[in-house]
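Support reply, case 0932

Customer input (verbatim):
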Amino acid sequence: MSLTYTQLNHPLRVPLAAEVHSRPSLRLRTPELITHLAVYATGDAHLGGDNLRTQQAILASFCAHFGVASISGEAKYFFHDFGRFRLKWECHTEFATYSFVEHNDELNAIVPDDWVGSRIFERVPLRHLPQQWLAELHEKIMVAAHVALVPADSEVEADASLMQIFEGGVLVGSEVLGNGQVWTDFLIQADGFSRFVVKDMAFLDQQAGRVAQRLLEIETYRMMALLGLPHAQRAAPVLNTIESELVTLTAAMTMANNNSAELADTDSEQGMLRQIIDLAARIEKLSLENSYRFSASKAYFTLVNSRIEELREERLEGVPTIEEFMDRRLAPAMNTCEAIVRRQETLAERIAHTNDLLRTRVGIVQEQQNRKILQSMNKNAAQQLHLQQAVEGLSVAAITYYVAGLFQYAGKGLKALGIPLNPDLVTGMLIPVIAGVVWWGLRKMHQRLS
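Our regenerated output:
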């Protein structure tokens, strides 16, 4: 019996090997126009929302307009040539991207001066998309961008004419991979889309597609990273309030420590403990609400920096590079998120430390109270011992009295029988002996009981 190599494979070998090839870059040939959308449809995907199923349903709705079969199962990548345009769809953890690509030979007919005018983005693939499907994406679009891949002979330069394409006052550009140039301003234009112009100087095979993909990933991950900023801005006043209450509580503890009468009062300590528990619960709730978003923002920011490095930028005279722009504009926002994370962690540690101090203080108060209780118990025990000793003395006397009485009656009986003795004298002589025997018997009994 012969075995094939596929029968020897681990069940995960094929899907894991295919994972690194599941998101290839687009194959572009100049001139190309790209419309890119990032759909953020499930805001609570990290809490159990099925983002994949939601995104697949949106893709299926799009494909239904063109009578094209969509995907199912666990597929996270889709590519199809619709004739007038090509679509590359990718589903990520929190969003899905749609890259619509159109090769437009009409752009070659545009004279060089028109490349820097408004005509460059007149015929983007967006015009082919069903308006009904776009309406279904209401409040779901996180990123919308156009990319124009232009030929080397286009007069795209960093001058006033290029500013006709971009409405922003700060133009960003650089030479990438040594074979092309990139221009953008990272602003949302009047049409609701950000714009990128990529000049193909001498791109090698697939370099144009990789550059376009890196630019779109930078734009997408930049926006996703900035989702953490509103959380940081909302968390700041809450942290200010908690810090203020903690300072007030600590001051109250200091005053109580300086007051010896207060030290013996547990009511204030119980109130302080309730306050510190409330502060700890609030900071924990805040941390849980922000933990995923801040961690995701940090990961997206790392991806942005990684994609920028892959561009291998070289400076173009007079304009900042993409890396410089992100260092000035995106990095401060991410630093704000990092500062809030550190502040939450520090405040939680301070609350825990204050809680330990307060519990130590309560322990000291309880020890003092226990010491007083023990002292009171010792005093009561001593009093009971003295009382018991007094009772034992009375018991010896009473028992001696009754026993002596019995001997006296016995002596009188013997005298009545004719025996010559004096009962009173004999009884008086036996009283010390009886008392000694009774005392000795009681001592032995106590010893056995103890």
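We compared this against your earlier run and they match. Two observations from our side: Residues 228-376 form one domain. The chain is about 55% helix and 10% strand. Please reopen the case if you see a mismatch on your end.
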